[in-house]
Write a structure and sequence with these properties.
The chain contains two helices and four strands. By secondary structure, it is an alpha+beta fold. The chain has a four-stranded antiparallel beta sheet. It is globular and about 40 Å long.
Length: 79
């Protein structure tokens, strides 16, 4: 039987610029933050959205705070 659990997802919104996803991934790797789920999309108005579940959201927010201004933490169901 599948096991489901409630987890926290980080939702980041930033200007859609070349290399931003790479910088985010390298920063998290250097801080040894594991990514469990990652989803990204962009809007026509020039903004990009990144949704991710990490092993340590607090450490992820701290590591990314110098180039990502806004974080939203949402509850999600992980199956």
């Amino acid at each position: 039987m599948p096991r489901a659990q409630i987890s926290k997802e980080l939702h980041l919104k930033a200007h859609n610029e070349t290399g931003l996803l790479g910088r985010i991934l390298i920063t998290l790797a250097l801080e040894k933050v594991s990514i469990l789920h990652l989803s990204a999309y962009s809007e026509e108005n020039g903004f990009g959205h990144l949704q991710m579940i990490t092993a340590d959201n607090t450490q992820a927010k701290k590591a990314l705070s110098h180039f990502i201004e806004g974080f939203e933490e949402l509850e999600v169901l992980v199956v």
